[in-house]
Design brief:
The protein is an alpha+beta fold. Helices cover about 60% and strands about 10% of the residues. Helix 4 packs antiparallel against helix 5.
Amino acid sequence: MTTRAERITPHGSGITPRRIPAPVLDAALVVAALLDVWVNVDPDESLRMAAALVAAFSLLLRRRLPLVTFLLTLPAVLLSDAIFAALAGLYTLASLTRSRWLLGLCALAFTVSNLTTWPALDFDLSKPSTIIALGYTAATAAAPVFLGQLVQTRRDLSLRIAEISEARDHERLLTAQTALAKERAQLAREMHDVVSHQVSLIAVRAGALQVGTQDAEVKEAAATIRRLSVQTLDELRHMVSVLRAAGGRPTELTPQPSLADLQRLVDSSGIEAQLQTDLPDGLAPTVQRALYRTVQEALTNVRKHAPGAAATVRIGHQAGTVHATVTNTAPTRPPLPLPSAHYGLVGLRQRAALLGGTVTSGPTADGGYELRLELPAGSGPP
């Protein structure tokens, strides 16, 4: 398992340095310590050989018990010239601990142990050779300490760099969210000031027409226009509140429709339409919304492009697949020149593709049009 510092790639470099696996490195250190024992310890001296072997194999514990490992290597330094294991243990301790006084004591213990030869324990500071040997041994002990501290500092700096990088990415994200919030607030103002004003005017005009006319058909059409305008205003008001709530908790754009709302959708479509459903219970909400939006778009297209046509909506379930078919007859009046972005069917196909389904459409033999949706019954989270 690698840490964040181990995954850092230097700036401008596309190559992440590979680290030697810990077991391989530990085994290599043990082998190097055994070679040091083989060169510097006489096999006939059992006590020195035992201490040196203990020191060599104690390096296997250096990552989990660095202080214990170093203490196990000191007898070998005191009894023999095999000091590689002690230096490796001291380096590991220096790279893992933050206690400077402990490192100083360990370096002093190594220096004293290396200067004395047990059992003679000859340590005379009055001799110049002893002073020179003391300086050399102290430098030898300081080298792994400084190297271990350098590795520890490098590791800390790598972690700090990773934290700074994460903070910078978070700052970029906050900046992007701030810009998005401004755009959403501006869009909300535009929708509120322009669209809601126009729809409100339509609703008022429709209400006035409903009250002032004596024609039953015109009265019913005006009531339908007014009802749809009010419903559009409600949905628009909710959408504006969502756009203004940028950065807050996720909010649904509208109360999400389900299959229970299909009959009301068909009845309020403003065209002659029939609904035939045969679906099991427990369909995923995403499937239900896809069915609803497909029928809604199909009925909208019939109303726009085939005035006077009748529509039939059939929704069923077969062999693990849910299908919805909306078929309309030939129009009896010319279509109205209404604005259209021509994205309706594209959006339906994209929604179906995300759920693993398909949308097909095309004209029928009698001059009408048919749109068909097929979805896996288990699409989306339940």
